C-alpha cells in the first residue's frame, strides 16, 4: 500500500494526468508544462501473475513479465504509444491497460450498476469460474449450431423452389466438357476447319517452293553446299559456312516432311466444324448467362452448383442431426445454469454479510444488502438469470436497486467494500483510489484505511488521500508539493522517511503549525 498526500493544488492531478495518458487517454497539448518539448511518460508493470499471455498474442505483442507502457507527445500535438517498444494504437493501449490497473474515483462507481460486474463479484465468491468457462464454451457452440440449423431450414424451404432450376443449370454446365485452358485450342481448330481450302493452297505452294526440281530450295541448298565445299578445299575458313548451310538443308528437309504430313491430314469436315462451332457458341452463351469471362470461372460455377445440390439432397438428415446436437447442448446448458444458480444462491448471503460487516465499520450501521437473481427464458452469457444488487440505507426502508438509492459517498464506500472482498478471491490488477475518502469522518476514515491495507495483502494499492488516518496505513508514503525555482513553479514528488511521515501526518492533523499534540497523534497513528 502506497499513500500519496499533498495540499490542495500541490499537483496530485499531474500524477493522475500522466497515468491516464500512459493508459491511453487522448492527448491534449494544453496539459503540457512546456509544449515546445517532447513529453515522454512511462509506466512499468510486473504482470507474471496476471496470466495475460493469450491477450498479448491476440494483440500481436511480445509478452514480457515486466511490461513497459510508453507514451510520447511531440510539440506538433501528435502522440505515439508503445508496449515493450512495439508501436501500438490507443485502442490496443486501452485494452491492455484495463487488465493492468484499476483507477478508481467516484466516477468509476458506475461500473457497480452493470449486470456484468455484479455477476463477476458474486461468481468470484461462489467459485464459479470453471463452470462459467465451460458454460460459455457450450453457449458459443449452441449459438453457432442454432445459426447453422436456421440457415439449413431456410435453405430447405427454398430448396423445392430452386432445386429444379439449379439442377437445370448444373446439367447444362455438366453437358459441356469444360477443361482449363481449352478455349484457345478450340478456337484454333475451328479456324483451321473454316479455312481448309486456303490452307491446302498455301501448303501446296510451300511444298512446291521447297522441292521444285530445278529452282527449289532443297536444290539451291545442294548447289550452295557444293560451292562452299570447293571453297573450303582452298581455305579452311569456309568450313563453317558449309556446315551451317548443311544444317539449314537438313532442317529444310524436316520442314518439307512435316508440311507433307500436315497437307495429307488437312481435309474438309463440315460435320466436325458444325459440332465445334456449336460447342463454341454454347460456351459463349454460358459466359453471358453466368456473367463470367473464363472457362475456369464456369468450372467454379459448376462446382458451387454441385455443392448446393449435394447439400439439399441430404438436407433433412443434416437438420435432424443438428437438432439432436442442439437438444444435447440445451441439456448441458440447463445443467450448468442450475449449478451456477445454486452456487450463487449459497454465496449471496455470504457476500451480503461481508458487505454489511465492512460497510458498518465505515459508518453505515443500518445499511443492508440483498442479491436479487431474476430467472430468464433465454440463455444469457451468465446463465438463465439476471442479477441486481439491492440496497437499503436505513431501518424501515425497502430494498431498491443500488443505483436508485445510494448517494455518491455511499457508493464509494460500497464499491470499496466490494473490491476489498473481491481481492481475496480474484487476482485483481493494481488499483488507484483517487480521493474516494473525501468528506468522511475520522472514525470512518480509519476503517477505510484498514480496508485498503487489508486489500494490499493481495494486490498493489495506491491511495491519493487528504486523511491522515488513511495515509498512516501505507507501507510507503509520498508527498506531492510545489517549490519555486526562479520565476517558475515546479511540482515535486518525494518519498518520505519515518520522521518526515510523522511531520506530514502532524501537518495534516493540525495545519501549518506543528504542535506537540499533533506530532504525538501522528506517531500514534503510525504505530
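^ C-alpha cells above, recovered residues below v
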Amino acid at each position: 500500500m502506497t499513500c500519496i498526500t499533498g495540499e490542495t493544488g500541490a499537483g496530485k492531478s499531474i500524477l493522475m494526468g500522466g497515468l491516464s495518458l500512459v493508459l491511453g487517454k487522448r492527448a491534449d497539448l494544453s496539459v503540457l508544462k512546456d509544449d515546445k518539448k517532447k513529453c515522454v511518460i512511462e509506466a512499468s508493470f510486473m504482470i507474471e501473475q496476471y496470466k495475460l499471455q493469450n491477450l498479448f498474442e491476440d494483440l500481436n505483442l511480445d509478452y514480457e513479465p515486466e511490461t513497459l507502457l510508453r507514451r510520447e507527445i511531440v510539440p506538433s500535438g501528435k502522440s505515439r504509444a508503445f508496449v515493450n517498444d512495439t508501436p501500438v494504437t490507443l485502442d490496443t493501449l486501452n485494452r491492455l491497460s484495463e487488465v493492468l490497473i484499476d483507477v478508481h474515483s467516484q466516477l468509476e462507481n458506475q461500473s457497480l450498476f452493470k449486470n456484468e460486474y455484479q455477476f463477476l463479484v458474486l461468481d468470484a465468491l461462489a467459485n464459479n469460474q470453471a463452470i462459467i468457462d465451460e458454460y460459455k464454451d457450450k453457449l458459443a457452440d449452441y449459438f453457432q449450431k442454432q445459426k447453422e440449423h436456421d440457415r439449413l431450414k431456410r435453405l430447405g424451404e427454398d430448396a423445392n423452389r430452386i432445386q429444379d432450376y439449379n439442377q437445370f443449370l448444373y446439367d447444362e454446365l455438366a453437358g459441356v466438357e469444360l477443361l482449363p485452358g481449352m478455349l484457345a485450342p478450340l478456337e484454333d481448330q475451328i479456324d483451321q476447319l473454316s479455312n481448309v481450302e486456303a490452307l491446302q493452297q498455301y501448303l501446296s505452294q510451300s511444298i512446291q517452293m521447297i522441292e521444285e526440281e530445278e529452282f527449289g530450295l532443297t536444290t539451291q541448298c545442294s548447289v550452295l553446299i557444293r560451292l562452299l565445299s570447293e571453297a573450303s578445299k582452298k581455305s579452311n575458313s569456309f568450313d563453317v559456312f558449309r556446315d551451317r548451310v548443311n544444317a539449314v538443308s537438313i532442317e529444310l528437309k524436316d520442314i518439307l516432311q512435316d508440311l507433307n504430313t500436315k497437307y495429307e491430314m488437312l481435309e474438309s469436315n463440315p460435320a466436325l466444324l458444325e459440332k465445334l462451332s456449336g460447342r463454341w457458341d454454347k460456351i459463349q452463351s454460358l459466359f453471358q448467362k453466368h456473367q463470367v469471362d473464363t472457362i475456369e470461372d464456369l468450372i467454379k460455377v459448376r462446382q458451387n452448383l454441385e455443392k448446393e445440390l449435394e447439400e439439399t439432397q441430404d438436407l433433412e438428415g443434416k437438420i435432424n442431426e443438428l437438432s439432436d446436437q442442439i437438444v444435447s447442448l440445451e441439456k448441458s446448458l440447463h445443467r450448468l445454469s442450475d449449478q451456477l444458480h445454486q452456487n450463487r444462491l449459497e454465496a449471496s448471503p455470504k457476500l451480503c454479510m461481508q458487505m454489511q460487516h465492512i460497510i458498518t465499520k465505515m459508518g453505515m450501521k443500518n445499511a443492508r444488502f440483498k442479491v436479487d437473481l431474476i430467472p430468464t427464458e433465454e440463455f444469457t452469457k451468465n446463465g438463465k438469470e439476471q442479477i441486481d444488487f439491492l440496497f437499503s440505507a436505513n431501518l424501515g426502508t425497502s430494498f431498491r436497486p443500488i443505483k436508485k438509492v445510494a448517494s455518491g459517498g455511499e457508493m464509494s464506500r460500497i464499491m470499496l467494500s466490494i473490491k476489498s472482498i473481491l481481492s481475496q478471491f480474484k487476482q485483481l490488477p493494481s488499483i488507484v483510489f483517487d480521493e474516494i475518502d473525501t468528506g468522511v469522518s475520522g472514525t470512518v476514515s480509519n476503517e477505510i484505511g484498514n480496508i485498503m491495507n487489508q486489500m494490499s495483502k493481495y494486490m498493489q494499492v495506491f491511495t491519493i488521500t487528504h486523511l491522515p488516518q488513511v495515509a498512516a496505513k501505507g507501507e510507503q508514503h509520498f508527498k506531492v508539493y510545489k517549490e519555486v525555482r526562479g520565476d517558475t513553479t515546479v511540482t515535486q514528488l518525494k518519498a518520505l522517511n519515518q520522521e518526515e511521515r510523522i511531520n506530514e501526518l502532524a501537518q495534516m492533523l493540525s495545519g501549518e503549525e506543528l504542535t506537540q499534540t499533533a506530532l504525538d497523534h501522528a506517531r500514534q497513528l503510525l504505530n
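DSSP finds 18 helices and 13 strands in the chain.
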